[in-house]
Description:
It is built from 17 helices and 2 strands. The chain is mainly alpha-helical. The N terminus and C terminus are likely disordered. It is found in: Cell membrane.
Amino acid sequence: MTSALNVPQPQERWSPRLWGTLLVLCAAMFLDALDVSMVGVALPSIAADLDLSTSTLQWIVSGYILGYGGLLLLGGRAADLLGRRRVFLIALGVFALASLLGGLVDSGPLLIASRFIKGLSAAFTAPAGLCIITTTFKEGPQRNRALAIYTTCAATGFSMGLVLSGLLTELSWRWTMLLPAPIALLALIAGIRMIPHSDRDDSTGGYDLPGAVTGTAAMLLLVFTVVEAPEAGWASARTLLSFLAAAVLLTVFVLIERRTASPLIRLGVLRSGNQIRAQLGAATFFGSYVGFQFLVVQYMQSLLGWSALETALAFLPAGVLVALSSTRIGAVVDRFGTPRVIAVGITLLVIGYVLFLRITLTPQYAAVILPSMLLIGAACALVFPSLNIQATTGVADNEQGMVSGLLNTSLQVGGAVFLAVVTAVITAGGGEGGTPQEVLDSFRPGLVVVTVVAAAGLLITLTGLRAPRARRSVVLMKSVPGTTESAPERVGARD
């Protein structure tokens, strides 16, 4: 069901209310990304204050990502059924309350639990917000421009969160948990006024709670198994049985989706090569970056002795580059197409990771760190908007919530799984508690894993460069037999 807002034609300017709606949605997505990255710089301070190990520490990041990824599919479905505005605003309110809770807890398990709750609320705001955009702006240049601004705000939030975290951690890591609360409250108040009403749609069935339960359980078990495997042994009975149980849960989830009348994922949507490449590209791109950020923060603060603020400033060039490109990526995609833009972006990402492999115990900011950050910032600016455009193009309005949830699930599950893999690799390296050189040597295999994951995403993207261009629908009018009226007829046309 489309929004009540009037969508402007290409030559028209967006109305103030349309801009207001977009800005509220951008603020929510900015917060989602901000919350993932802000905790990164604060991790060493949290570990020292709450006496947490490296393997436990990564669950503060993974707890949010898993809560986010675990119910994104249900969140997208709820947006389609209950009304996008209603779902978005309620979840945003829960996000504000959970942010307040996270800044007040005083133990590792409670902090992880509060992060998980925030992730759950973000699982409903993200697909609802993206769905509001894709059903408000017409497919083509208008939607591409809106999505470019929207997703660039997410990438900017992820980058700028590091800077804000550096500033706040100098006072206390708790401020990094509390900051999103007032911002979310302001966005909620503005959203009540700006976001147009959308009706419920109960015509397509229920909510597929069995699918949500089995899908979430499969992802939680998979990440837990990867994290615990170094301690238990990769070939141990416990690890192998856990992997088997995760596979069984995933199989049950697929069977449920095939048989239920109201699936979280209509599996037919994955028959599209562009859709599959968008989902796998999102998982590998974000997964590699989350692992990279985790390693770089530990390297800068633990080995180089940099403060939280100095670490944040090292990431600043990437954030600035992303922010400056927000209004231009849509036009780039219009001209070259999403496969080419994504391929160029991931190529820059891989080069940035390879360059960072040259790090030593002596800081080399101008020669190594700065070039890497600039390349990674350029990659984020190109890839994030393009992935969203590719995933939502050609999808019916009543399935935009489902596809939006699927894309965000790929992002967050990719982040959780690959972060767990990277953490397991560096833990297996035995550097924790060793000399600085031993710690650095344990980090290098993790950086190699990050690079390989990004390279795999590039290979997946390259398979789409030779695929036929997407067919656009041109609406013609034909007469209806027996009447004097005309009805729309869609005729496929090559781009």
